[in-house]
Amino acid sequence: MNSRYKKAAGQYQQVGVESQISTADPHKLVSMLLNGAIERYKKALYFIDQQKTVEKAESLTKALAIVDNLKASLNYEQGGVLVENLEALYDYVLRQTLLANVRNDKAIIDEVIVLMKTVQEGWDGIRGQVMDKKSTNSTAVCIRTIGERTRLP
Q1: DSSP conformational letter for 136
Q2: pLDDT value at position 40?
Q3: Rg of the chain's alpha carbons, rounded to an integer?
Q4: In sequence order, what are the residues at sequence separation of 6 or more whose Cβ sits closer than 8 angstroms to the Cβ of residue 149?
Q5: Do the beta carbons of residue 98 and residue 90 sit within 8 Å?
Q6: I need a labelling partner for 85 at 20 to 30 A (CA). Which of 7, 40, 69, 114 fits?
Q7: How is residue 151 annotated by DSSP?
Q8: Is the backbone of residue 99 left (phi > 0), alpha (psi -120 to 50) or beta?
Q9: Helix axis angle, 53-72 relative to 76-103, nearest 10°?
Protein backbone atom coordinates (compact mmCIF):
# COMPACT_ATOMS: atom_id res chain seq x y z
CA MET A 1 0.00 0.00 0.00
CA ASN A 2 1.49 3.32 -0.97
CA SER A 3 1.86 6.19 1.47
CA ARG A 4 -1.14 8.14 0.13
CA TYR A 5 -3.47 5.23 0.84
CA LYS A 6 -1.89 4.58 4.22
CA LYS A 7 -2.48 8.20 5.20
CA ALA A 8 -6.11 8.05 4.06
CA ALA A 9 -6.67 4.78 5.94
CA GLY A 10 -5.13 6.29 9.07
CA GLN A 11 -7.37 9.34 8.86
CA TYR A 12 -10.43 7.13 8.35
CA GLN A 13 -9.48 5.04 11.37
CA GLN A 14 -8.98 8.18 13.51
CA VAL A 15 -12.45 9.43 12.58
CA GLY A 16 -13.88 6.04 13.58
CA VAL A 17 -12.15 6.14 16.96
CA GLU A 18 -13.23 9.73 17.61
CA SER A 19 -16.81 8.79 16.74
CA GLN A 20 -16.73 5.86 19.19
CA ILE A 21 -15.27 8.08 21.91
CA SER A 22 -17.88 10.79 21.50
CA THR A 23 -20.73 8.33 21.97
CA ALA A 24 -19.19 6.03 24.60
CA ASP A 25 -20.22 5.88 28.24
CA PRO A 26 -17.46 6.05 30.90
CA HIS A 27 -17.32 2.25 31.22
CA LYS A 28 -16.81 1.84 27.48
CA LEU A 29 -14.12 4.55 27.46
CA VAL A 30 -12.05 2.61 29.99
CA SER A 31 -12.48 -0.53 27.90
CA MET A 32 -11.32 1.37 24.83
CA LEU A 33 -8.26 2.64 26.69
CA LEU A 34 -7.38 -0.87 27.84
CA ASN A 35 -7.76 -2.14 24.29
CA GLY A 36 -5.67 0.75 22.97
CA ALA A 37 -2.84 -0.07 25.37
CA ILE A 38 -2.92 -3.75 24.42
CA GLU A 39 -2.81 -2.86 20.72
CA ARG A 40 0.20 -0.57 21.26
CA TYR A 41 2.02 -3.36 23.10
CA LYS A 42 1.31 -5.75 20.23
CA LYS A 43 2.65 -3.20 17.75
CA ALA A 44 5.80 -2.86 19.85
CA LEU A 45 6.34 -6.64 19.60
CA TYR A 46 6.03 -6.40 15.83
CA PHE A 47 8.48 -3.51 15.68
CA ILE A 48 11.00 -5.40 17.81
CA ASP A 49 10.81 -8.29 15.33
CA GLN A 50 11.29 -5.84 12.46
CA GLN A 51 14.18 -4.14 14.30
CA LYS A 52 12.41 -0.80 14.05
CA THR A 53 13.61 0.82 17.24
CA VAL A 54 12.00 4.22 16.75
CA GLU A 55 8.57 2.77 15.99
CA LYS A 56 8.87 0.37 18.93
CA ALA A 57 9.68 3.25 21.25
CA GLU A 58 6.75 5.28 19.89
CA SER A 59 4.32 2.39 20.44
CA LEU A 60 5.55 1.85 23.98
CA THR A 61 5.38 5.57 24.71
CA LYS A 62 1.76 5.60 23.58
CA ALA A 63 1.03 2.54 25.73
CA LEU A 64 2.65 4.28 28.70
CA ALA A 65 0.44 7.34 28.18
CA ILE A 66 -2.68 5.19 28.10
CA VAL A 67 -1.76 3.24 31.23
CA ASP A 68 -0.87 6.49 32.98
CA ASN A 69 -4.29 7.87 32.00
CA LEU A 70 -5.98 4.75 33.38
CA LYS A 71 -4.05 5.14 36.62
CA ALA A 72 -4.92 8.83 36.89
CA SER A 73 -8.61 8.01 36.45
CA LEU A 74 -8.81 5.72 39.49
CA ASN A 75 -11.31 6.87 42.12
CA TYR A 76 -9.43 6.61 45.40
CA GLU A 77 -12.39 7.87 47.47
CA GLN A 78 -14.76 5.06 46.48
CA GLY A 79 -12.57 2.28 45.14
CA GLY A 80 -11.02 0.87 48.31
CA VAL A 81 -8.76 -2.15 47.98
CA LEU A 82 -9.66 -2.65 44.33
CA VAL A 83 -8.27 0.76 43.42
CA GLU A 84 -5.16 0.17 45.52
CA ASN A 85 -4.56 -3.11 43.66
CA LEU A 86 -5.15 -1.50 40.27
CA GLU A 87 -2.79 1.34 41.16
CA ALA A 88 -0.08 -1.16 42.11
CA LEU A 89 -0.69 -3.12 38.92
CA TYR A 90 -0.55 -0.02 36.73
CA ASP A 91 2.67 1.08 38.47
CA TYR A 92 4.15 -2.36 37.77
CA VAL A 93 3.03 -2.21 34.13
CA LEU A 94 4.59 1.24 33.72
CA ARG A 95 7.91 0.07 35.19
CA GLN A 96 7.94 -3.09 33.09
CA THR A 97 7.17 -1.12 29.94
CA LEU A 98 10.16 1.14 30.52
CA LEU A 99 12.34 -1.90 31.16
CA ALA A 100 11.08 -3.67 28.04
CA ASN A 101 11.83 -0.59 25.98
CA VAL A 102 15.41 -0.34 27.22
CA ARG A 103 16.07 -4.07 26.85
CA ASN A 104 14.00 -4.76 23.72
CA ASP A 105 12.52 -7.56 25.80
CA LYS A 106 9.56 -9.25 24.15
CA ALA A 107 8.95 -11.50 27.17
CA ILE A 108 8.27 -8.47 29.37
CA ILE A 109 5.87 -7.04 26.80
CA ASP A 110 4.11 -10.41 26.57
CA GLU A 111 3.69 -10.39 30.35
CA VAL A 112 2.27 -6.86 30.27
CA ILE A 113 -0.18 -7.84 27.52
CA VAL A 114 -1.43 -10.75 29.64
CA LEU A 115 -1.88 -8.45 32.65
CA MET A 116 -3.72 -5.80 30.65
CA LYS A 117 -5.95 -8.42 28.99
CA THR A 118 -6.85 -9.75 32.43
CA VAL A 119 -7.85 -6.27 33.58
CA GLN A 120 -9.82 -5.74 30.36
CA GLU A 121 -11.66 -9.06 30.71
CA GLY A 122 -12.59 -8.23 34.29
CA TRP A 123 -13.67 -4.72 33.36
CA ASP A 124 -15.73 -5.92 30.40
CA GLY A 125 -17.17 -8.68 32.58
CA ILE A 126 -18.79 -6.20 34.97
CA ARG A 127 -20.35 -4.12 32.20
CA GLY A 128 -23.68 -5.91 32.44
CA GLN A 129 -23.89 -5.26 36.18
CA VAL A 130 -23.05 -1.61 35.70
CA MET A 131 -25.47 -1.10 32.83
CA ASP A 132 -28.27 -3.03 34.61
CA LYS A 133 -28.15 -0.42 37.35
CA LYS A 134 -28.66 2.27 34.67
CA SER A 135 -26.12 4.41 36.46
CA THR A 136 -22.56 5.46 35.82
CA ASN A 137 -22.12 5.79 39.59
CA SER A 138 -21.10 2.12 39.73
CA THR A 139 -18.49 2.79 37.10
CA ALA A 140 -17.22 5.67 39.23
CA VAL A 141 -16.06 3.18 41.84
CA CYS A 142 -13.06 2.45 39.62
CA ILE A 143 -12.71 5.68 37.69
CA ARG A 144 -12.83 9.31 38.66
CA THR A 145 -13.41 10.71 35.22
CA ILE A 146 -12.30 10.08 31.71
CA GLY A 147 -13.89 13.26 30.45
CA GLU A 148 -16.39 13.95 27.79
CA ARG A 149 -13.84 13.28 25.09
CA THR A 150 -10.78 11.14 25.61
CA ARG A 151 -8.23 10.92 22.85
CA LEU A 152 -6.28 7.69 22.52
CA PRO A 153 -2.59 8.49 22.10
Answers
A1: T
A2: 98
A3: 16
A4: 18, 21, 22
A5: no
A6: 40
A7: -
A8: alpha
A9: 170
Q: What confidence score (pLDDT) does residue 23 get?
A: 60
Report d(CA 75, CA 85) in Å as an integer: 12
- Crossing angle of helices 53-72 and 26-49, rounded to 10°: 160
DSSP string, 27-77: HHHHHHHHHHHHHHHHHHHHHHHTT-HHHHHHHHHHHHHHHHHHHHT--HH
- pLDDT averaged per 10 residues, the chain (length 153): 50 50 75 95 98 97 96 89 94 98 97 97 82 53 40 41
Q: Determine the Cα angle at 46 with ends 44 and 47, to 5°.
A: 65
Q: Using an 8 Å Cβ cutoff, are 87 and 74 in contact?
A: yes
Is residue 27 within 8 A of residue 130, CB to CB? The reply is: yes
Which residues have CB under 8 Å from 25's CB, separation 6+? 136, 139
Under 8 Å between Cβ of 119 and 89: yes
Look at residues 84, 87, 116, 86 and name the one whose alpha carbon lies nearest to residue 100.
Answer: 116
Longest alpha-carbon distance in the chain: 51
Closest by Cα among 70, 69, 46, 58 to 123: 70
